[in-house]
Amino acid sequence: MREQIIDKFVGFLLVFLILFAIFLQISTTRNTDKLKNDELVKSEQYAQKIVRLITLRTGGALEQTLKLNPEERVKLNEILEAFLTKQFRYIFILAKDKDEYYRFVLDGEKENPEAFGNIFFPKSDLFNEVYETGKMQIIEQKDEVEGVWVSLVYPYKENGKTTALLVLDLSKEYAKYLSEFNLPRE
After folding, report:
1. How many domains is the chain built from?
2. What are the residues whose beta carbons fall under 8 Å from the beta carbon of 158, sequence distance 6 or more?
3. Taking the model in full, what pTM does it have?
4. Is the Cα torsion angle 85, 115, 41, 33 positive or negative in sign?
């Protein structure tokens, strides 16, 4: 009789431990996803501040200012470069030309920045959607862009109309860091 009680208790304990392990796994996965989403929200706020800063520096006439003033272009590229962190792999601004091609307006790349006016071919139609709707999009980069986890494409507006796109590329290294953040709990 006593052995039956002990067997039932051990069985109950095993079921409880299994359920607890499942609960921990689910909560860890949810926490990791929440952490990633929180970082994307912070990145959007970061994009807003960058756009605000550049708008102030160009007086609301981005392309015209940068075409006429190469020194200001150099300064703004340096400012974008200063925003690069472990989190952000690339930061750049694109504008469409009269033929609807995207062209680099600013590039914060440290090693080999793209020259003003160089063409850029996006691998996602969401770039066009942001340009048309004026609403930010997050593009998961799977393996399309080396070292990039997601691209946050943020509209740069002048007089209420999207005239350029700020692109913040979040690094795969940072995504890995976020994924491993809760690893000890697992």
Report:
1. 1
2. 55, 60, 61, 62
3. 0.77
4. negative
In DSSP terms, 104 is beta-bridged to: 94
Domain enclosing residue 157, as ranges? 30-179
- In-domain check, residue 146: yes
In a domain, 60, yes or no: yes
19 lies in some domain: no
Residue 94 pLDDT more than 80?
A: yes
**Distance in angstroms (rounded) separating the CA atoms of residues 121 and 101:** 8
Nearest CA-CA partner of 116 in 163, 145, 77? 77
Strand partners, 153: 137, 167
Q: How distant is the alpha carbon of residue 125 from its chain centre?
A: 17
Which of the four pLDDT bands, split at 50, 70 and 90, describes residue 13?
A: low
**To 10 degrees, the CA torsion angle through 139, 144, 150, 153?**
-50
The bridge status of strand 119-120 relative to strand 102-107 is antiparallel
Degrees to nearest 5, angle at CA 42 with 36 and 44: 105
Sign of torsion, CA 135 136 138 139? positive
